[in-house]
Amino acid sequence: MGEEPKVDKTIDIKGQACPYTFVRSKLAIEKMNVGEVLEIFLDHRPAVDNVPKSMEAEGQKVLSVEKINETDWRILVKKEKEKKK
To answer: Residue 3 falls within a domain, yes or no?
Structure first.
C-alpha cells in the first residue's frame, strides 16, 4: 500500500444525483492545477461508478474509490491534464 496522497481540494456532493455529481466534480477539477488531487464525498450509488468512469474519460487519474460507511463513498482523483481548448 502506498502512502495517502495529499488532498488539494475537497467537495461534498452528498445528496446529489447523476449527472450533477459528475458536473460538480468536473467543474472542481477544472479549477485545479495538473498534479493536484481532488477528494469527492458522495452518497448516490450510481455516481460511485459514473464519476470515476467520466473522470477517466476526461483524462484524469482515479486514485481510489472507497466506501467509508453504510451510505457514503470517497473518491480521489488526480488531475492529469488540462481541459482541451
So the answer is: no
